[in-house]
Design goal:
Elements lengths: L1 E6 L6 H12 L3 E3 H11 L2 H11 L6 H12 L7 E5 L5 H11 L5 E6 L2 H10 L2 E2 L23 E2 L7 H23 L4 E5 L4 H15 L2 H6 L8
Parallel strand pairs: 1-3, 1-4, 2-3, 4-7
Antiparallel strand pairs: 5-6
């Protein structure tokens, strides 16, 4: 069973890479950001609280994030593996995830992208106002979502230069200790995320194949999925 955490700062492309990897391996991509945005659109108490925090470029509490992930990982589709995007974000969350996995192998991929490139990507990226789908990096800017026809707009947390800078500062403060926590593990790799998306995807797949035994790699691919 393949279990992967994709780390990276805002706009590093970790969501896009998590989707590609999940499709190639036949396991679900679990994005805490997507879950929280859906909760915000639904108007739940957690959704409203999370939306206010994210709009300011701040992080949701460890307790709320752990509860969200614990519930999601308990669903049947995650029994054969998963790709986590957006969790863990702190060392305490990582320790809790280790407890959840109870010694099972965890691949950790860090997408490294310079701040200047991250700011440029935040300024350019768009998201659907209805379904929350992100536009593909590097794709021509479109006014409507190809999935549901909703208007493509700039994310609230991308629209203000101060918020953009603050998000990167929050990430550095909270997540660099997390990278240090994982760095010494044999299943940790840092990948250049400033490359074209297809090259990043290729490097990510190669890193996983180099780290895991063949029996684990083959077990992570569901019947009918390409390899």
């Amino acid at each position: 069973m393949l279990k992967v955490v994709v780390l990276g700062p805002p706009a590093s492309g970790k969501g896009t890479q998590a989707v590609h990897l999940a499709q190639s391996r036949g396991i679900p991509k679990i994005s805490t950001g997507d879950i929280l945005r859906e909760a915000g659109q639904a108007g739940t108490e957690l959704g409203r609280k999370a939306k206010a925090l994210m709009d300011r470029g701040e992080l949701v509490s460890d307790e709320d994030m752990v509860n969200i992930v614990r519930e999601r990982l308990s669903r049947p589709d995650a029994t054969h593996g998963f790709i986590l995007d957006g969790f863990p974000r702190t060392v305490e969350q990582a320790k809790t995830l280790d407890t959840m996995l109870d010694g099972q192998p965890l691949v950790v991929i860090d997408l490294a992208v310079p701040d200047r490139e991250l700011i440029h990507r935040m300024e350019e990226r768009r998201v659907c106002s209805k379904c929350g789908r992100n536009a593909e990096p590097g794709s021509p800017t479109a006014d409507t979502c190809v999935r549901c026809g909703g208007a493509m707009v700039m994310r609230a947390d991308d629209g203000d230069v101060n918020v953009r800078q603050h998000r990167l500062q929050v990430y550095a403060k909270e997540s660099w200790p997390l990278i240090d926590y994982y760095r010494s593990r044999p299943t940790f790799r840092s990948i250049n995320g400033a490359q074209p998306p297809e090259k990043v995807a290729s490097d990510l797949e190669a890193a996983i194949d180099a780290m895991l035994p063949a029996r684990v790699r083959s077990a992570s691919v569901m019947p009918g999925q390409p390899r």
